[in-house]
Amino acid sequence: MLKINNLHASVEDKAILRGINLEVKAGEVHAIMGPNGSGKSTLASVIAGKDEYEMTEGEILLENENINELAPEERAHKGIFLSFQYPIEIPGVSVTNFIKTAINETRKANGLPDMPANEMLKMIREKSEMLEIDRKFLSRSLNEGFSGGEKKRNEIFQLAMLEPKLAILDETDSGLDIDALRIVANGVNKLRSKDNAVIVITHYQRLLDHIVPDFVHVLYEGRIVKSGGKELAHELEEKGYDWIKEEVNA
Amino acid sequence: MKYTEDDLREELKTKEYEYGFYTDIESDTLPIGLSEDVVRAISLKKEEPQWMTDWRVESFRAWQEMIEPEWANVNYVKPDFQAISYYSAPNTKPKLDSLDEVDPELLETFKKLGISLDEQKMLSGVAMDVVIDSVSVATTFKKTLNEKGIIFCSMSDAIKEHPELVKKHLGTVVPQKDNFYAALNSAVFSDGSFCYIPKGVRCPMELSTYFRINQANTGQFERTLVIADEGSYVSYLEGCTAPSRDENQLHAAVVELIAMDDAEIKYSTVQNWFPGNKEGKGGVYNFVTKRGICEKNAKISWTQVETGSAVTWKYPSCILKGDNSVGEFYSIAVTNNHQQADTGTKMIHLGKNTKSTIISKGISAGKSQNSYRGLVQINSRADNARNFSQCDSLLMGNDCGAHTFPYIEVKNKTAIIEHEATTSKIGEDQIFYCNQRGIDTEKAIALIVNGFSKEVLNKLPMEFAIEAQKLLEISLEGSVG
């Protein structure tokens, strides 16, 4: 699904990612953890193609195709989805209108006609029920005046609607209370299949109790310094990151 | 490919005027220059009665004593009033029964603009009084309107056929000496539209006029008068596009609305005069005086989408004279490249329980300057007056400006006035968010701008709203992608 080889990236000439290697296969869930400033969100943005980051070395392959030079929307059309840590507001554009535009633009790019309205409505109904989203919520302006939890739930709603191959959840648990966390995690779990993959970026173990990862990677100073199974997350929760830093610096 | 705010800026700069073409129709044009003789000659050419000639001359004399205003937040080279021709009429004879009789070249022009009269007739039920340059050349739906007693014709015809109405109302809302450009217009107005809705009649269709400036160096001085008699209703649409030209063209129109007791007038404008090229050369000067007066329980609603002109100076206003009268102003003003707009409204509360609403959306891109200027005035007798104003500005890039000049004058303690204002910027983060969802930058800008403008777009009649949306996209993003 996704293969990252020796990825280096910088912002304003400051190196943030310094040689990332990562392979995510279809059907897998990978967690990326690490202390503040280790480069987790940068990694998510670079995979999604955000322009302010400059890739200085390495390659990103999606289903064996090099996507280094693709624009963010082209990557989206190929099935990359990023759930934002800080979703932006678009006043006057309803959640429904936004998701409709996103779906139809993606379909257009893939040579498909617009999704028929009845199909769209059915899908919206199903997915909003799954995520326990109030229908009124869908006619509100995108993220405008949303609580932190509503914003994150809206991100997962879009994820459910767009059905991407690779979903990257950037700090989706931040700002969520425990009920919202459970709903969001259930939503993600229901969307998991053998054909798609998920990368979960998080500080804390608690989201990983709900979305159980196959692999856990620790990012530190722009490199993956340790990888393991889900038990690694527990170990980090107990012991913090200092022992990792010591290991690296030793 | 990757897309930055710099690219966005670059692309917004390079947007050229879509409708830059020029129709070669033979015109009957007066020599350039302005004098009392020219004013008399215009009146003579138009075969006007003596009272009209006198009115024009009186206006001209007043204008000569006046000074061009400089208080607006715009910079431009003042027009040389002696270098303009004040009258130009297409040579095609205006008496037409069907489209077949219209100059084929003119029809071609409409086609380019996407305004097929046929389509308009059949699909939208809009009666058109088409003004190209200065004389009406085609009028439709006259019969249906006649049956209801509605008068909808060119100002020239109205002066001849309904002199009593014109004489009684012309200049009562915008007096001859109101301001420099209104005085000029009063002296030399070429043509325009006249509309009268009789007592208790609800006009069954949207009345619509398209204006175009066509002749090189021809100032355009439209005069519009809409009278809604007691208890009547009319929705009036006005749309403009103009061909691409190098010289600055002056447009100084006057629109007067009269809403008598219990009447309602809805006046919508989509304005797309040539804004000048991306270096700021050429483009129309749009110095317009639009004002309406509301008698008891009457309502006037102005809706405007302003995307064109090099310099705009325009404040559609309401005088809320009668008790319980209502004034509304909904505006979207888009400026790009070197465009400058100073636009807004005046709400003058005279009667008791009068209410006004102002929603202004300014969108600035390129090196443009976009100003909202508004006056809310509550007079001493206007008990329980209410006003709500909201002024939002959206900026694109770092070289443009948004300005707000709200004036509030209250002389009655019972008034309630609210004013809200916001300024935001389309940022890389918003664009990236949309991109990440598969929406390219061009579409993203359209989405954001439409969302921003929604409250105003919703106020336009359906077919106009679609056209307005198209115009917003053309004005801001054409070559992006």
TrEMBL record, chain A:
UniProt keyword annotations, A-Z: ATP-binding, Nucleotide-binding
Protein name in UniProt: Fe-S cluster assembly ATP-binding protein
NCBIfam families for this protein: sufC
GO molecular function: ATP binding; ATP hydrolysis activity
SMART domains: AAA
Domain ABC transporter residue range list: 2-246
Signal peptide: none
Protein family (similarity comment): Belongs to the ABC transporter superfamily. Ycf16 family.
Keyword field contains Transport: no
UniProtKB/TrEMBL annotation, chain B:
Origin: domain of life: Bacteria
GO biological process, one term: iron-sulfur cluster assembly
Similarity comment: Belongs to the iron-sulfur cluster assembly SufBD family.
Name the record gives this protein: Fe-S cluster assembly protein SufB
NCBIfam families linked to this entry: PRK11814.1, sufB
Start and end residues of each SUF system FeS cluster assembly SufBD N-terminal domain: 123-203
SUPFAM superfamilies named in the record: Stabilizer of iron transporter SufD (SSF101960)
Domain SUF system FeS cluster assembly SufBD core: from-to ranges: 211-452
A matching Pfam family: SUFBD_core
